[in-house]
Amino acid sequence: MGGPSTIVVGEALVDVVHAAGSSATAEHPGGSPLNVAYGLGRLGHDVTLLTRFGDDAHGELLRSHLEQAAVQLFPGTVDDDPTSVARAEIDAEGKASYEFDLVWHVPEVTVPDDVALVHTGSIGAAVSPGAETVLELLRRVRGRATTSYDPNVRSSFFDSREQALALVERFVDAADVVKASDEDLAWLLPGEDPEVVAHRWQTRGPALVVVTRGGAGAIAVSGAGTLHVPAPKVDVVDTVGAGDAFMSGLLHALAEHDLLGAQGLPRLRHLGLGTLEALVATAIRSASITCSRAGANPPTRAELAG
Predict the structure, then answer these.
(1) Do residues 246 and 36 make contact, with C-beta atoms less than 8 angstroms apart?
(2) CA angle in degrees (0–180, nearest 5) for 202-262-282
């Protein structure tokens, strides 16, 4: 393993998947932060996941999965509550919808000085009381570590759109890098142009805001300007984990360009458009590879480079 040390914070759960036209179900490790940590591990990063799961069969499935990518766990990860479960329905176009049986809380930890990146998002940054702990962690490390955030909005976890937007924008304010999907923005801010939202969020403090648009690629906004980066045509098997693979690919690219940590932040805030395009193209390639095969199966370093 190598590169800067990374902490990913958020939920780890088991996806119980049912595909359209089939009577069978399958169980897979899941949770957006878990997927990002796993993706970074497969890309050769030194990554630790701050999460929780139960001392049960589902928890053992998660532990075994993470070990395959050399993802480390904080002490206290395993507790007496059951492992969280997401029941996923895959439609005929390969898109997933979810229902959750979730237990989420996270211990406060001391972030080591050598950590260059702290990433969070999704349910772990939405459900109380864990979300407040995660937000304070981001605020505490910002400046000495790069902070990144992917809202990956699950509307069922919020009482209202207004509540969701207020919380999301608190995390945006605490992040150096933000990645959101056009679907996130369509629910949070219906009728608003995603590019306009990205510009507004970027002025709140992040150095980089990226909006993914599925097969249409991504919009990236930084101090250098705005880019629309196209996506290659892909024979889609399903989209499970594609957004998370985009995120791990983007964070990997930031590390490869030495843009993480306190020393990298000034360069991150003054990206050239050529570097910005290279970062987003790497993230898109990571997501595209994942879409070309079943499940949240992000690329290895060799696959991403190839």
Answers:
(1) no
(2) 60
CA distances from 82 to 33, 42, 124, 247 (A): 18, 27, 16, 28
pLDDT category of residue 124 using cuts at 50, 70 and 90: very high
Q: In whole angstroms, how far apart are CA 145 and each of 106, 113, 118, 141, 264?
A: 20, 9, 7, 6, 9
Q: Using alpha carbons, list the distances in angstroms from residue 220 to 103, 201, 258.
A: 34, 12, 19
Residues 6 or more apart from 294 whose CB is under 8 A from it?
A: 237, 238, 240
- When comparing pLDDT for 129 and 134, which is higher? 134
Q: Domain 2-305 belongs to what topology?
A: UDP-N-acetylmuramoyl-L-alanine:D-glutamate ligase (3.40.1190)
The answer to whether 83 and 53 are in contact (CB under 8 A) is: yes
Which pLDDT belongs to residue 2? Answer: 56
Look at residue 287 and give its three-state secondary structure: helix
Is the pLDDT confidence value at 46 over 60?
Answer: yes
Angle in degrees, 0-180, between the axes of helices 32-42 and 242-256, rounded to the nearest 10: 40
Please provide the distance, in angstroms rounded to a whole number, between the alpha carbons at the two ends of the chain: 19
- Give me the DSSP letters along 222-254: ETTEEEEE-------S--TTHHHHHHHHHHHHH
**CA–CA gap between residue 249 and residue 245 (Å, rounded):** 6
Q: Would the pTM of this model clear 0.90, i.e. be above it? A: yes
The answer to whether residue 277 scores a pLDDT higher than 80 is yes
Is the per-residue pLDDT at 96 higher than 80? no
Q: Do residues 168 and 190 touch, judged by C-beta distance below 8 A?
A: no
